[in-house]
């Protein structure tokens, strides 16, 4: 009963407090807002909780996703309420009133916890309320709303939010009860979030996902694991399952929560810590130190001891205090030192820092992994990873300690003494601010030290110390200072520590949330970071200007804030607003006035200057506005796509690149021909709106019937029209230049070193469909329908390539010029190089027609040359990036070997790989030239000793070289499935090269990753899934499923059979223009090459969406003699066919499925194909060697809903 | 009649300070004054009796209740006004007092309400009962403190330095309150203000450096030093010269001149005159170790 009375009292007091209702309202609003954004109802907002844009917003899955995120925002509230439930007696010093009452520990602790927990539950109800309100408000498109029940809203509470809340409250409560301090509660909050981030990071590596799922106290990783392969249909309807790892996780953390409460109960005592006696100075370092220092500075007086009566103090010559300006500065220095010491010499600070370090070390040591391959720990990599992790901690520490510093005297109940001392207010204020700055300097130095340490630990010695210094101290640190000033100003203005913390947290949330809602301009986002990327090729390059100006801009604002908050700083006991404003006015004298006026003026001036640069010199566009332009292009001119258009014949280009000015001038002549049967009156031309047009003319054109520079479309009327079979030409002289600077969305194609631009900067004699918006969700927001591909046999589509309408095979030559210290590169063979007028010229041509898909580069490269037969191999790279150059050359040679042997001749005399800066992370294939991003293969670190480690640079190189056949010789038509003929076939080609070079053993892990990505892609799909043969530009299908499909087919019918089919395809369609081939042409040839019993496989893989659900039931091993064993495998197989939304129906099996044995390293040592008709598979086989696991489909060649259960460790018979 | 029996209580703090040293006292009903300077151990003793602290050795009994092992039994009959305490600033006086009454075990709402009302009236807080405690002045807060100490008619009431910080009028009011508490209740008043004890208490003890230096009733204590206190008015500057040869027990300033009291069996010199001793003299003499317990 007493317990309930205590709980009731607690609850009643909370519900009397306005803050409770404010929190509730805030959470309702946030919840509604996020649901709306997730449902696509907020224009310009891009929020995806793993729900894609087809999943309904009110399914249990989606509701859970949203509510969990908002609940995480509420963690500070939970910490405050749960912690204070027991801490308030310590804080208010009312412990004696309670502890001397005849109540038991259970009454007291239980009652307080129950009261706080009930309040928190009620507060969290806001999430469901907000979501419900939003769903039923009618603002979300009906297609995103599905059937719902009460349980849709309640299940997230039952499974996730409720247990999470219990655990978090128990943790915070127990800490406060045991340690009787609030600082550990804060630290615990931070550590929990840390645990979540570590879990997220661990989970990226597949083998750790099980651990991650258990270690995450909020159950999110577990849910993620359980639902990772759910399709759109499932995510829109299924209830979250309480099973498997989720159930264990919930039980575990509920138990941990209960254990914490039990611990608190056991160790809690109703006693009062000893009241501090005045003579007990040595026990508390804070008070005497500070008071002593302050007193010593101002006056000196004997401290009479209270033990003996004052008989009269002997006269001592008291020193004379000095109150001059210089003394103030000296005082400032001393105070800064004092404040800093008090902040840093503190267990909780150390714990926070250690936690941050651990996290960073964990993340960095793991390294950035792609397909499980690591990269060299280059300094900029390490910095990015470290900062990503540790910045969070720096922000937390700054926020927390801004509050602590601001409230230090008041918390120690010394404020009245200190406020009455003759210390100038600005000295006290500034000392705290500077101490906070120094804390940040300390933290940043720790980042640097840990970064260097991890590099050394990994055996990497290229430390680039100046870069550390630049990035940390010149770029990051000023921003931290600005944020520290903000935090401190908030505390100075808001006269309540908890509200102050909350406001700062709100600011941090807003800074993340605003851009999601389309509010991106940095001029109104306080201390918004500049979107800068460092590149080894370019350094900070064109980001330096925006960084400097934005730092100055917000720095000025920070100074203004500092002066302002100094004026309103509470000194003495006047803490009412009227009194403070009055006081502030009185304090507003000469220096302050000047400071405020000056900073305000400078701020406005800088703002104007930045605005001029970002909005006037460069038209500033939010992402939404940029997309809108693309949408307009489509809305206005889509009709021209299927209108009669000319066929490109040749292109002759003169490209003058100006790296220092970050621009280029492009002059050229495109010749085209009317290959239709009718005279052609209209010639469409597309040109990027950013181009400055000096000349753009079509021969014999009378006028421009369409002249739309806003979106970049022009139509030239020919009078008389161009007769069939006749040619004409487009002459153009355009230029691109950078003026001023931008803060977001800087154009990274034209840079000081490593310029790369491709066809989007050149004119196109067609409607360019590659400029359309591709994502359905985005298209819908701009009033367009879904993007559809033309049906596979549509004649208009077959008449063009799937790259774009003007991407045909043409004659080509180009001259590239650049500054003398750089090399200019274009597709083709360099046949002449010369210097003229202070510029360096390079002339390129090709011996035959090429695909009209060109690009131009310029940079300071080191060149590594080699050769394969009569083909020159060249790697143009940044001088220090030599790590994988040999590997790339090796890959090229292997690829050329395989492809010329199995597909057809290579049409050029050169293969060139050129490095470009890491602003984009991709590799592409142009004619005889492969631009390759800095970050994608040049710095990969391949572990030779690990046979399972995928050699990523090798793989990508092989893939890109393969494009010289699949794309640059044969390119698919602009219909459904068009991309298969380039991407899927390149995946296949690269796989075959890898198989030959590295052996089949390494294939298993690679195929597993492909399968994982395919399955995951299905769940996240933003549109309906198509079979492989009809794929509409979905990477997870044409890359990942494609790899699996082709590998399975070559395994079934033989590599040679597949290659024969491909050879025939090349022979029929290579280097020929329209009509372009489709997947039908590929499938037809594969079927022809396949024996009858395997044809079902080709149909399954290309024409349907077929999955298996195989799992091993039993795997036993019996020794026969020394190296020979008998393995018995029992497994179950099931075949499912899915429709586009993922609704699966079982279909009968009549398939060849492999059953086999794997060794400890994961290599398949024995395998047998079985024809499976029923659902049971029962095989016994003889095995030699070190057998470890066995099962069905050990090589992961079939697309399996749940691949992990295919093999199991062998049990001894 | 219940009495509080303190036997050989000792307490040493981890830092080394011996807060209580073999303290033995018996306190019966009525006002008992515990006098001593700051750091004497009074608060330690008070907190030990109030079950907030443990002593190292010794025993403590209230009637049949062994305080050390029957804490809850003690808490049921105890009323404690701490030396320094805080309240929840946003809660009203009524709400907190009512809640504390619940914690004291008064579950029946009607009875409890009547009791709480009566307590607030007794301590003159009735008209501010719905105001938040954070708005209370020091005196009002003290009165609230005594109100919560008196919940449920406790058998033992401990007040620790209750009048420090009260203005004269509040002090008088507080004394009246204490006096009213009753003949059957043990009230221990711990203070360093001598006049509180002399005004109110029928029994007293002086605690100094953790030891009981004197116990008994004030009148007898004063009697014991009659004829041994001598006074003289001197100049401030001469104070040092007097300190050496004479055991000065107190110095007081009066109209700018210094009046000293000296302790001794005989008149120190003709310039001194005898004065009738008061409790202050007892206190100072005891604390200076000039009077045996």
Can you give me a brief rundown of this structure?
The complex is a heterodimer of chains A (1213) and B (293). Chain A has 1213 residues and is α+β, with helices and mostly antiparallel strands.
Descriptive report:
The complex is a heterodimer of chains A (about 1200) and B (about 290). Chain A is α+β, with helices and mostly antiparallel strands and about 1200 residues long. Chain A is built from 35 helices and 31 strands. In chain A, strands 2, 3, 5, 8, 10, 12, 13 and 14 form an 8-stranded mixed beta sheet that branches. In chain A, β2 and β3 (about 665-675) form a beta hairpin. Chain A is globular. Chain B has 2 domains: about 5-215, P-loop containing nucleotide triphosphate hydrolases (Rossmann fold, 3-Layer(aba) Sandwich); about 225-275. Chain B contains 10 helices and 14 strands. In chain B, α6 links the parallel β7 and β8 (about 185-190). In chain B, α3 (about 95-105) crosses α4. The two termini of chain B are about 25 Å apart. At the A-B interface, α1, α4 and α5 of A face α2, α3, α9 and β12 of B.
Structural class of chain B: alpha/beta
Q: Give the count of helical stretches of chain B.
A: 10
CATH homology-level superfamily of the largest domain in chain B: P-loop containing nucleotide triphosphate hydrolases
Per CATH, the architecture of the largest domain in chain B is 3-Layer(aba) Sandwich
Low-confidence stretches of chain B: none
> Which overall shape of chain B is indicated by the principal axes computed on the Cα atoms?
globular
The percent range for helix content of chain A is 40-55%
Gross morphology of chain A: globular
**In the CATH scheme, what's the topology name of the largest domain in chain B?**
Rossmann fold
Give me the number of helical elements of chain A. 35
The averaged pLDDT of chain B comes out at: 88
What's the CATH class label of the largest domain in chain B? Alpha Beta
In total, how many beta strands of chain B?
14
What is the share of helical residues of chain B?
25-40%
User: How many domain modules of chain B?
Assistant: 2
Strand order of the largest sheet of chain B: 6-7-8-3-9-10
* Helix/strand/pairing category of chain A: alpha+beta
